[in-house]
Amino acid sequence: SFLLAIIFPTLFIPPILLILLRPITFSALNVLPAGPTPLIFALLTQYHATIPYVYEYRLLLSSSSSNTLTLSDKSLVYLSAAQLALSSLPGSLISAAAGWLIGVAWRRDLGPELWTTWRIPAWINAGQQGQGGDFEQLQRQLEREGRGTGIEVVNRQADSRQRHRR
After folding, report:
1. What span, in angstroms and rounded, lies between the C-alpha atoms of 13 and 19?
2. Which helix (H) or strand (E) covers residue 57, if one does?
3. What is the pLDDT of residues 27-39, one digit of tens each?
4. CA 120 → CA 4, 7, 133, distances in Å?
5. What angle do CA 40, 104, 12 make, to 5 degrees?
6. In whole angstroms, what is the distance from residue 156 CA to residue 151 CA?
């Protein structure tokens, strides 16, 4: 749903920005790089906002322990995105900034109501339910076989401990 909602803004806003900025920069900005750069950066905003980092690590910049750089497991993703944004200046930076702003606008519900509330219809996903797409059905099947979710196993163990204490 997110991709379908932002595909048109990411296609049209960077060229519109280029048209608006060209006279101001005396035609220095006249090329946008080909590719899905705005779409990638709109997705990167969702990655940044929703997926937490798993671990952090520190790099020593000098022999003293006070000069360290703290990075996370998400740092390489951001490094490759920075490389994409800086690959074909200034057009790639415009595309990246437009994609980031579109992603932030979608995240904060700043666009039209249809843009942020529209979802893929259920009939599109209906064909996938026969292929194991129904999570509840799979969970019930595992419970019937005695291999329930790990949460239930932990709860059963806690219940049996409480019974033994009584």
Report:
1. 10
2. strand 56-60
3. 777 888 888 999 9
4. 9, 14, 15
5. 60
6. 9
What are the helix (H) ranges across the chain?
A: 2-21, 37-50, 75-85, 91-107, 113-117, 122-125, 135-144, 150-165
List CB contacts of 91: < 8 A, sequence separation 6 or more: 18, 29, 31, 32, 33
Residues 6+ away with beta carbon under 8 Å from 110: 104
Q: Which of 90, 94, 75, 76 is CA-nearest to residue 37?
A: 94
CA distance 162 to 120: 46
| The length of the chain, given as a count of residues | 166
Do the beta carbons of residue 113 and residue 83 sit within 8 Å? Answer: no
Which residue in this structure is represented by tokens 């998400």? 74
Provide the Cα torsion 148, 149, 151, 152; round to 10°.
Answer: -10
Q: What is this structure's pTM?
A: 0.66
What pLDDT digit, counting tens, does each position of 101-126 carry? Answer: 999 988 888 877 777 677 776 666 65
